[in-house]
Design brief:
Structural class: mainly alpha
Largest sheet: none
Distance between the termini: 28 Å
Oligomer: single chain
Order of helices and strands: HHH
Number of helices: 3
Length: 56
Amino acid sequence: MIFVSLIAHLKDRMAKHAEFRRLVAEINSLSNSDLVDLRADRTDMIRYAHHQVYGV
């Protein structure tokens, strides 16, 4: 039972990490002019992505 729980926890962490990496890659692919057009800050976007994936 503990082993199954551990495996499920690891799978969840790996999925969250993969999602966060995907989001960061997408954010980093935006050019500076794209960010200006969006009126966005890259650091704030990454912080928000982290919050969305991992929570508080």
